[in-house]
Specification:
By secondary structure, the chain is α/β, with parallel strands linked by helices. It is built from eleven helices and five strands. Helix 1 runs antiparallel to helix 2 and helix 8 packs parallel to helix 9. It comes from Rhodococcus maanshanensis.
């Protein structure tokens, strides 16, 4: 909140508005004094979990990124009264934030860090799933036939007494942490919040509804837990906030009824990419992020 207030003063906000913000911070009650529109310069970085591919109202300023105007960064911006620059992009990897142009079907887009500056007040970051091949891993866990027909992805990824996905995440974590250093370097006055990945599958899954065997459902969710733990640890080393959305999305996984699901199933019931947030999911994630940032 201190960084946000500092930015409001730099940008010429009135003394009265600043005093209101200070009072809200002291009271711990954002509802007592809503943030003024324009007081916060907010930049959203990330992959498809933040971008919202195929969700309604796609942002045609960068069509290749498959970014929704109703994704969780938009929900956060509306709740905080912030000016949003959203450069999240589907299929992005950690390198696409720092120094690599990302190719899309509509042309390459610049590294996402280019959107940051010393005037940035708030940054959210959701990135990493593509670095450890979450989507292809999930597809390899699909088994439309009942056991024992087919191959368990858990058995494949834990062969030889090793957890290959866990090792991949462990090896990736320092590179991901170095990305946070670069974010802070580009936006030295900003509040940085890492938003993790949610609860995609309940314990044992729901093989009658989604074609994933129970042990493989548990393994897939364990991969997300490993990723969240690695990101949380790297963020903590840098005194950066980590927002864990697993509890907020628990019970709203791909097994939930369409009107309650925060994530689309392997056969989506609405416009959304499988294993990605639904509109309802984006609203729930955005609400939690905004609440924690207040």
């Amino acid at each position: 909140m201190t960084n946000m207030i500092r930015r409001a003063t730099r940008s010429g906000a009135t003394a009265a508005a600043t005093l209101c913000l200070l009072a809200a911070a002291a009271a711990g009650n954002a509802g007592a004094a809503p943030l003024q529109t324009g007081a916060i310069d907010y930049v959203a970085l990330g992959d498809s979990a933040a971008a919202g591919p195929l969700l309604p109202d796609q942002d045609m300023s960068a069509p290749g990124c498959l970014r929704s105007r109703d994704n969780y960064p938009a929900v956060v911006a509306a709740a905080l009264g912030a000016n949003l620059t959203d450069v999240t992009c589907s299929s992005a990897r950690t390198a696409h934030i720092t120094d690599t142009r990302q190719g899309t079907f509509a042309g390459a887009v610049p590294p996402q860090l280019d959107a940051l500056s010393p005037d940035t007040d708030l940054v959210t970051v959701t990135i990493g799933a593509n670095d450890f091949n979450l989507f292809s891993t999930a597809l390899s866990c699909t088994n439309p036939l009942p056991q024992p027909t087919g191959t368990s992805c858990r058995d494949k990824f834990t062969s030889g007494g090793r957890n290959h996905q866990k090792e991949l995440i462990r090896d990736w974590a320092p590179t991901w942490g170095a990305m946070l250093d670069k974010v802070r370097e580009r936006a030295p006055h900003a509040e940085i919040a890492v938003v993790g990945y949610g609860t995609y599958l309940r314990p044992g899954g729901c093989p009658a509804q989604q074609p994933i065997w129970p042990q493989d459902a548990d393994y897939l969710q364990s991969v997300m837990a490993d990723a969240n733990e690695a990101m949380s640890a790297e963020a903590a080393r840098r005194d950066i906030r980590f927002i864990d959305i697993r509890q907020a999305t628990s019970g709203h996984d791909i097994c939930a009824a369409p009107e309650q699901a925060h994530y689309a199933g392997l056969v989506p019931a609405e416009p959304a990419v499988p294993l990605h947030p639904t509109v309802l999911g984006m609203q729930a994630i955005g609400a939690q992020v905004a609440d924690e940032l207040r």
